[in-house]
Amino acid sequence: MSEDNVSAKRALRAEMKARRAAEPCRAEKDFALAQNFFSLPAVREAWIFFLYRSFSSEAGTSLIAERLLSEGKQVLFPRVDGANMVAVQWKGQAFRKGAFGIEEPQGEPYEGKIDVCALPLLAADADFARLGYGGGFYDRFLSDRQIYKIGVCYDFQIVEKVPSEPHDVLLDAIATDKHIYIRR
Fold it and tell me: What is the span of the domain harbouring residue 137?
């Protein structure tokens, strides 16, 4: 990775974290985001969902998780095990803080098929590139799986260009509080 790319990613991460932290009306935005998420055809047709557990100023996923469970769908959340991430089924059990201070579900890793993955992000672009936090957990988890990948964020997190690398996994769709974007 070039030094320019590293610097660009670092600067964009800092900018987006600051903008998210300063964002008012989060509850209203999370509600609108959930409505857009559920309007995606891939979401309506799917049964097994891998969601991230919202942390800090990330776009919220609790409304999404609650609705999925109420519709009888299966919900999984990530847990970090060493350098990798595993999916764990969630049926409403308590969470415990994990390695990065993010709440994680307890239980055995889920090994079955996953239909949809909702990914956290700091920024995304029109080419469906995603800027994460830099740990590569989602890229490694998704690299050899056939899962529909939806970036979940606030609309201001859509930027002109995300610095990316060839190993970065592209999104199939993005759901924001104002729009949905689907990669053709």
Answer: 3-182
